[in-house]
Write a structure and sequence with these properties.
117 residues; mainly alpha; 6 helices
Length: 117
């Protein structure tokens, strides 16, 4: 399912081959490590990191997260687990993500982790 979406994003020149491979590697890792067992739950996260990777490569700024949402994420019991998982996933990318982008990524990972409970 994600392969088709990535193909469309690549054909539209919104992402490049490197981003596509990064997202596919993340998808495989999360399924192989049984972080999540349902690919449908991964869709929003994978699409987000594809677009985040593309934004970072183009030096496009991401809007800062709403302070209330940021505060909720910072207090979430899954934040440390989210950050640790991102460290594993980030190894598949050569892109350096801004702190603003990372908070959105952490939010998506927290949501993923909560779906597996």
């Amino acid at each position: 399912m994600i392969g088709k979406k990535l193909g469309i994003l690549k054909e539209s020149k919104l992402i490049d081959e490197e981003t596509e491979q990064f997202v596919l590697a993340v998808n495989s890792y999360l399924l192989e490590q049984k972080v999540i067992d349902n690919e449908e739950h991964l869709d929003m996260f994978l699409t987000h990191i594809a677009m985040a990777d593309a934004r970072q490569k183009k030096n496009e700024p991401v809007l800062s997260m709403d302070e209330m949402i940021l505060s909720e994420i910072q207090q979430d019991e899954k934040l440390a687990e989210s950050k640790a998982l991102w460290q594993e996933l980030a190894q598949y990318s050569s892109t350096e993500f801004s702190s603003e982008e990372l908070w959105f990524i952490y939010m998506h990972i927290i949501n993923l982790l909560k779906k597996t409970q």
